[in-house]
Structure formats: structure tokens, C-alpha cells
Amino acid sequence: MTTAPLTAPPATRSDADWWRQAAVYQIYPRSFADGNGDGIGDLRGIISRIPYLAELGVDAVWLSPFYPSALADGGYDVDHYRDVDPTIGTLEEFDEMVTALHGVGIKLIVDVVPNHSSDRHEWFREALSAPKGSPARERYIFRDGRGEHGEEPPADWTSIFSGPAWTRVPDGQWYLHSFATEQPDFNWKHPEVHEDFLRTLRFWSDRGVDGFRIDVAHGLSKDLGEVLPSSAELKAMPKDGTHPLWDRDDVHEIYAEWRELFDQYEPPRIAVAEAWVETPERRAKYASPEGLGQAFNFDLMEADFDAGHFRDIVADNLAQSAVTGSSTTWVFSNHDGVRHATRYGLPPRAGRPVKQGAQWVAAGGPEDGIDRELGLRRARAATMLELALPGSAYLYQGEELGLHEVAEIPDEQRQDPAFWRTTAGDRGFDGLGRDGCRVPLPWTRSGSSFGFGEGGAHLPQPAWFADFSVEAEDGAAGSTLEMYREALRLRGELQGEESLEWDEALSGGDVLAFERPGGWLSVTNFGAQPVALPVGEVLLASGELEAAADGTSQLPGATTVWLRRSEA
Ligand code: BGC
């Protein structure tokens, strides 16, 4: 890896626009760092690692749910929206964390889960103890069952995690849960649901939170008449804004209300939607400045490592964000998908769909044929390409270490409801569920839970974690951690206007090259064979550059290089 000093001045931008090209680091709190030795990551652990985050050079942290929860779905089953789970910390520690993050210039985005609560939420408990038809049930979606005694669910719908989407309560009624049984869906036609979420958004905004990640943003609004469609009918209905369950046009009325609240703060609070919708045009509605302002784009997460495919995705999404005025987002890994270092090492398989959906890929056991070295090489190249793009980059904890998915978790230790609600061969998510990307991080080569904490780890860590630990990579030339640090540092210095120009002379075949303002050139070789290294001052490369027989430099396969072109 080669680096060169830079003299370009850092980009200036107004504070309200901090998010537009931010590098955001996702923390899955229970697996990041454990400060009190109970095997569960916590706020104390995060506070102790803030110097690490500052050195990494990220602009913001996105914190996955830390609210009181029975962990039926890793914290996405929330008992109280305005509190901290006692195993994770206290509100005072939360405030301390916000102050400490802000002290080193890092913003904080928290996860909000408005589609459903947990079945331990006081409203749901109230609904269960209230009689059928009572107002307390109106905050959720209750229905009578079909069949002579109502013994069949109101409809044959399947939950996203597989299994039935309706569960019967003792008095015979059924409630809807789009995810696990423990996650009853709210009824967003109820004014108290609106009021309560506004209160929640204000509560965290007042505590200094800079923004929100909105879970299942496309699911809140539902239009369910008396007669429910069958699952086959639902599937056949277009998702064009009129579907009874997903991506309804009127969901944006909720976000317009939220925007009013966000804009009362200085700088305005930001929001990013997790919205699984059919087209970039539909996604753009979530990114509207009158609504949430930004939306996740998972296209790269679902793409094969292929120059043409990447180019189309980048071009489409930049065009789309130019229309909305938002900035686009890029993601390769998160807490729901197989880590990209593993995904990119999958063996070529006849009949494999072109789209390698992050959630639909089987990351198998040790003899699964995954080429982990190639996977990591490609992942590093993909990340450097990502960090050179305009827009915000969402990074997932551990990807900066080049971590692979952990496949070797015994079934009985798995926690993901997407694993438990399904049987092998019938899994909605990848074959093994999502625990493999949620294993506590390795901070040291050895010791109790590789430095995660003093009291073990809530998911088993494999022996190979030692070589991917922060301790092993810190200061090690060529390590993935050092590559991320340097790439983020350079990105901060080079980041200017949100524009990109394809370099048509260099692009073609397996090569994708583009230039950012100021002569910052990113070139990725997606193929297996080396290509000639373009002219320019080498700033950073994702792998060692090679020398050809004639002594000229070459860009090897599965490698990205950043160059600075001298201004003409
Ligand atoms: C989150 C998942 C969660 C689901 C239900 C999502 O899309 O990212 O982790 O299981 O919502 O809340």
C-alpha cells in the first residue's frame, strides 16, 4: 500500500449538511464492547472505544436499538422507547456517550422502530388484558379469526421471518405481526401512536441525538378492510403506493409530521429510511426533503462484484438523488446481511442468480468452498470504491477489520428469530440467519472474549478472530484497519462537491474508473488479471501494486487504487 501526503484543504460544508457525505459507522451495541463484563456489549463499552472511533475517522455513529427489550429480535422488539436497557446502561450513561462523541466531532444517529413494539410494551399488555373490541386493542391490529370458532387466522399471511403473521390471544382474537410473534404491529391510524412517536423523537432530539434511522419505514401505514386479501392476492398486488401493507403513499404523511419536528432543531435532525421498495423512484419518496430526507440504498449490497453492475447502480442512484435533492447512501454490510468479505468469496455456482442478495446467500460451514482471501480482497476494493463515491457511506462494525461471517455457531446458541422460525431449506434470510455478522468484536489477539469484555461473549467467537483483532491490525502495514483509517482520512481531505465523472478512457471490461472534483481518481479492477496502472500520484491502494516484466506498475485484479491527477 502506498500513501502520499495531501495538501488540499478540507472540504467545507454547512453544519446542516453534515450528513450528505458522512461516513457513518453502525454499532450493534450488544456486540461492540462490554464495559461491565456480563457478556453483553453496553454504553460503557462504547464510551471506552470512542478514541478508536475518532482514530478510525468516521463522521457519525448509528446505534442499533439499545432500548429495554427481551431480545426476541436483537432489540428490534422494543419495550420502552424512551429508556435504555439496564443490561446496556442508563440514561445518564447515554448522555455521557453523546457528550463524549460530540467532543471528538462524531454525530449520533439512533434507531427508531415504529412498525411494531415488543409484546412486553405497556400498550400491548394493556391490549391483552382489555376485552375484545376495547379501545386498548385499537393501537395494534387485532381481528377475529376465520372458521366456525375463529380458530383459523384472519388471513394466511406469512411473517418476514417465516411462519404465520397472525398469533391468537387467549380470548380467541388474533393480532398481526409482520416479523416475530413478539413484535405486534402498531395501528398507525390511531392518533396516540402518532403522538407517542413524536414524543419519542423529541425525547432523543432533546438529549442531543443528531438523527434517526427509521426501521421498516415502508411498513407503518396499512389499509386493511374487513375482508382481508389472501397471501397470493397480496403478492399479486402492485407495490405502487396502493398496496394494503407495504410502501403506501400515505406513509409519507407520517414523515411530513416528523419533518416538522426535525426542523425545529438547529441543525435540523436528520433521518434515514430503511425502506425495501420496488424502484429507485419509490425509494426517492422517503428521501424527500419534506419527509425523512435520506433513504438506504441496498443495491450494492445485493450486487455481484462486477464492473458493469456497479456502474449501473452508481449511475442510477446518483441520478435519482439529483432529482430529490438528497444525497445517496451506500452500504455493503449491516446487521442483517452476510458480511461482504464472505459474500464476495462465494464459489461460482451454475444457476446462481446474478443478484447475490445479502440475505439470500448461504454462508456455510468450513467446507463451504468460500474463498475467504479473494472475498476479503474484493471487499477491500469495493469499500475503497464506495468511499470515493459522493453520498454517505454506512459502514458496519467489524468490516474495518475485514471480518468474515462466523458460520461456526452451534444451532442451540443461535439467537436470530429468522433462524428459529424456519427450517433448513426454507429460510427467508440466509441459510443460517443473521447471528454470523453479530458476533462480538475481537479487540485483542487473546484473552477473555478477545478483549470484548471480562465476562465472555453472548455469541461464540471463533479462534480465527485473533488474526482479525484490532490489536493484530493496529499499526500493521497493509492491514484492513489501516486501509480504512487512511481511506477515511483521505476522504475527509478530498471530499468536495457531490459530483463524479466517469473516466471513459480507463473504464471498460473489468475496469471502472471515475474522477471526483480536484483530480481525485478512483480505479477498480474487478477482474482477475492485472491492468496497467493509470498515470497519477498514488494516494492509496486496497492491495499491493505489482510490477510488470518491463518494470511498469500494474493494478492487480480485485484491487482499487486512488490517484491524484496533476491539474493541467
Ligand atoms: C431490522 C432488522 C429487524 C427488522 C424488524 C429490520 O429491517 O434491520 O434487524 O429484524 O427490521 O424490526
From TrEMBL:
GO terms for molecular function: alpha-amylase activity. Gene3D superfamilies: Glycosidases, Oligo-1,6-glucosidase, Domain 2. This is Alpha-amylase. Belongs to the glycosyl hydrolase 13 family. Transmembrane segments: none annotated. Signal peptide: none annotated. It comes from the Bacteria. InterPro entries: GH (IPR017853), GH13_cat_dom (IPR006047), O16G_dom_2 (IPR045857). GO terms for biological process: oligosaccharide catabolic process. It comes from Brachybacterium vulturis. Residues 26-438 form the Glycosyl hydrolase family 13 catalytic domain. Keywords: Glycoprotein.
